């Protein structure tokens, strides 16, 4: 159902089903892979042909080894979610996720400054990372995503900020918003044509100016058309 890509490594396809219930489809899965070589990003996606049950999404969790084990042991961290509407996502693994430990002493901080990379993988050379995937109800996933965004002050670990749970606009509505944006911009350039009985016309130059401005806005704010009021051109 799922696969994982870590840059520089082979695609992961060996998934393990856990906590399966008799006569019910599995909902919990695990990938296990070495912590080394170190990595900063991970891609999780649905395999072609995979369709999740209605009103569900797949939540992604990661458990990393600790350089200094805590009494409770390594904990799973919620990274984000994917779903039928958005079948893949790229997640950034923060430095704080890679090295879970107590507050370092001044001497340890000096060592880290001298050899940050060695410090980051200390104690993890032969350990594994566990990536958990759980199929959960949409309303539960929405709550977890909201909590993740709140705790990270808007800088989620997900590089792809649009979640699979956001309301998807239809092609018709999207087309209407593009046309409205173009009309609002081009209307100010319309001039009456005496040869056509005063009918207002717009030059191709004005259209090219709108298209150039429209593309620049998409680069700056790719999701502006998805909002209920995408604004004027």
Automatic annotation (TrEMBL):
One of its GO terms (biological process) is protein import into nucleus. Coiled coil: none annotated. GO terms for molecular function: nuclear import signal receptor activity. Residues 171-227 form the Hikeshi-like C-terminal domain. Pfam families: Hikeshi-like_C, Hikeshi-like_N. Residues 5-151 form the Hikeshi-like N-terminal domain. One of its GO terms (cellular component) is cytosol. Belongs to the OPI10 family. This is Uncharacterized protein. It comes from Elaphomyces granulatus. The lineage of its organism: Eukaryota, Fungi, Dikarya, Ascomycota, Pezizomycotina.
